[in-house]
Amino acid sequence: MTEQDTQRTDEQAPLLIERDGHVATWTINRPESRNPISDDEMVEAFLDAVDATNADPEIRVVILTGAGSAFSAGGDVKKMRDGEGIFGGHPHQIRRGYRYGIQQIPLALQRLDVPLIAAVNGPAVGAGCDLTAMADMRIASQKAWFAESFVKLGIIPGDGGAWFLPRLVGPARAAEMTLTGDRVDAQTALEWGLVSRVVAPEDLMSEARALADRVAVNPPHAVAMAKKLLRESESSSLSSLLELSAAMQPLAHHAPDHAEALAAFLDKREPTYTGE
């Protein structure tokens, strides 16, 4: 597949997948209901997308966005009201529904080998807010806003938000978002560190792609291992992380892309990486 080749799934799929060169774009594709992610078909789509990406050495970065005006409304509130899907049954059935349903998304994204950029095009609410926090990098449209709004519906973050959010914005701001359920606009999200930049709506995807290209230009194995270290640092001691770094570094030193990086640097030319 060349740099200009593109693959796209069926337009009715819950998660549209487009491939352009070394960058894949995943679009949550339920705009009529503001892109909820709690249905089984959406969960399966995320799991399949992670597995397919990890199996494809040509993909080096993924961009995640939403179709229509919203990034993601999180859970399907109508199904919640009607006790359908993961929200139905006795308490132990609901517990199982969460564990083997929506909670599989953060577990899958944690094992995604390549960096994930959330291009937040509109409201990111509840589990949709948490979904942005699961990404490695986040860019927001000026039209985006974020709400850890579970308490507004009398429930709790059931998808890992209480783990992800404090690591991004700190415990005090995470508590404010979680316990009030109030909206945080894009500019505040930038000031709090929830996103790294805010751009005009029409520039969102081009800015996300530019960032993806800046990542994809680097040796893919080094990027993947660096991402792994960043993820491990969230729960590791310094000594454990140093040990893991020492174990990984020889793999980087012996990769052909490392030799190419050194040669290009010394020859003052642009490198060409093969992912080997």
How would you describe this structure to a colleague?
Helix content is 45%, strand content 14%. The chain is of the alpha/beta class and 276 residues long. The strands form 2 sheets. Strands 1-2-3-4-6-9 form a 6-stranded mixed sheet, sandwiched between helices. Strand 2, helix 1 and strand 3 (61-66) form a beta-alpha-beta unit. Helix 5 (127-133) packs across helix 6.
Question: C-alpha Rg, in Å?
Answer: 19 Å
Give the SSE string. Answer: EEHEHHHEEHEEHHEHEHHHH
* CA-based shape: globular
**How much β-strand is present in the residues?**
5-15%
Count of DSSP strands: 9
User: Could you list the spans in which at least 5 consecutive residues all have pLDDT below 50?
Assistant: 1-9
Global structural class:
alpha/beta
Number of helices: 12
Q: How much helical structure, as a percent, in the residues?
A: 40-55%
* CA-CA gap between termini: 17 Å
Main sheet strand line-up? 1-2-3-4-6-9
Largest sheet: 6 strands, mixed
* Mean pLDDT across residues: 94
